[in-house]
Amino acid sequence: MCVIMVIYTLNYIDRSNVSNARLQGFEKDLHLHGRQYATVLSIFSVGYIIMQVPGNMLLHRLERPSIFIPSCMAVWGVISVLTGFSTPSYTDALLVRFFLGFVEAPFYPGVLFLISRWYKRDELAMRTSLVTCGSILSFAFGSLIASGILSGMQGKLEHSTICRWLFYIEGSITIFVAICAMFILPDFPHNTRWLTSEERALAISRLAEDGCGTADELRKQTTMQGLWDAVSDWKVWWFAATLMFQVVAGSYTIYFPTLTATMGYGTTASLLLCAPPWAFAAIVAFAMSRHSDRKQMRYRYIAASNALGALGFIMSMCTMNTTVRYISLFLMAQVVAGTMVHWGWISNTFHRESAKRAVAIASINGLGQIGSIAGSYLWPSKWGPTYRYSYAICLAAIVVSTGMFGVMHLYLKHQNERIERNERDANDVKELRDPVGFRYLV
Q1: How far apart, in whole angstroms, are the C-alpha atoms of residue 375 and residue 390?
Q2: Alpha-carbon distance 285 to 306, whole Å?
Q3: How deeply is 142 buried, as exposed, middle or buried, from its count of CB atoms within 10 A (0-12, 13-18, 19+)?
Q4: Helix 159-181 and helix 65-85, axial crossing angle in degrees, nearest 10
Q5: Is pLDDT above 60 for 322?
Q6: CA-based nearest residue to 275, from 430, 142, 434
Q7: Where are the beta strands (DSSP E) in 120-256?
Q8: Cα–Cα nearest to 371, from 231, 207, 256, 252
Q9: HSE on the CB side for 106, CA within 13 Å?
Q10: What would the mean pLDDT of 193-221 be, rounded to a whole number?
Q11: Prior bond to 277 cis, omega within 30?
Q12: How far apart are CA 110 and CA 102, in angstroms?
């Protein structure tokens, strides 16, 4: 689990280094104007969306995440390094960001699918949180690393060369960790090479008891059957639309250094100020997801997290007071806690068929990232430094997503009542469509 968290941290550091480089004159070096910087950010999501479902389908078919995931990681590390070598231009930046999204796409849905093949339904939210905490830590430590690189080389290298070294160093670290991960990451319970036969049997039996089926049953459904089952299930599309609004609400994350800079501090101070809100968010997210697993509930934790984020948006809309705006950043960062619980909820809801779950996770994440494309254009410089319109759009989006989560919550509660009624009225266990004792987590 620790190595996955490290990989995810590097994933987001490589993805967000453009945001950190912006404070050092990235736009000026590439002669960007108007919406071109937002397009550089959003083109990443286009490549990301395209490869989501094919990536998870390939992972399900190969059954070797220990090879597949680190290989993708090594490639995106190489692309990050090549970003520094490329001639600075708008076209080059678009191409690099597109292919970076393309090769990073299989990682997150692949990891969510991997942990769903190892842990029971009431263990998933906390494990998802541990993995996804890597993204939160990247927001914190990525800014710290960037501030160290950018400030340490200030005055020693040409202005345009400083940004290049940000890509060289962070990309090289990613490649090194990818090579190490090939020897550490597990595959699935039935084919992980370093498990004993007793450990393998225990891992498989735990999932069977949780209503996930035996190893043979897990392999009965083909990848193409999983694709059809996923796209024909309305819950996949509903979760995807909900995530899209949730991602729009969280679009402030890719502009976080810009938002801290509105408080009037210099480049280094603005980057350092990014760390505390995300460090606090990581602690809250872990505690919230653990409590969610313990209580076997999902929606109320998502709603509470979104409520804190909404309060942060309102505070930033209402004042330019430095202290209040910085406190609001702490509150806005809490939105990610609900998003982590949300991913645990998705894995719970599609827990029984592994092929369908692989496609469902990738489809929801991929379609949800349409919100990233829209969100990249919500923070134009002309709306700064207050960004009131941006915060208002994020507030509206988070209200919509919370309401849509509520609809799914009520639907799954109704399904649990139906399952309980069927168990009570059934004369024979074979008449039941669902395993005895199975309930959706709501």
Answers
A1: 9
A2: 12
A3: buried
A4: 170
A5: yes
A6: 142
A7: none
A8: 252
A9: 22
A10: 72
A11: no
A12: 14
